[in-house]
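Quick log. Single chain, no ligands specified.
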Amino acid sequence: MAMGGAGSPEDEIFEINVTPLVDVCLVLVIIMMVTAPILSEPKLKIELPEAVYADKGEEKAKLNINIDADHHVAINEKEYKWSNLEDELRARIFKAALADKIVIVKGDRESIYGDIIEAMYVARSADARKVTIATKPVNVGKKK
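-> predicted structure:
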């Protein structure tokens, strides 16, 4: 019977150490959890006007036109020039193949009324079937 040295075939280990793999995966999950809220933040800061209404809105819409107080316009999170708005909106409606073709216009409470009307007109020109305006709900029974 021969004495096996450090490099003998009987001493080889055929197991995979998964601890480093789990550590790397956990670090990646933590990085994603930290960066996800930053990426989902809209480019334009909009404070919606308040309104009393019964309808909760069309949350199934995928296209939002955002207008801030400084006359900037964005579709969802990407900012565009007003001159390119209709072409980009038409392309997005066609690309997404939205069955209902609903577009929500979100205008800042300090934005110009004409900008909101222009955005609604552009949405209708881009083949949107329904255009709605987003507002922030008011608590009617709220005590001050």
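The beta strands are 50-51, 63-67, 73-75, 78-80, 102-107, 130-133, 136-137.
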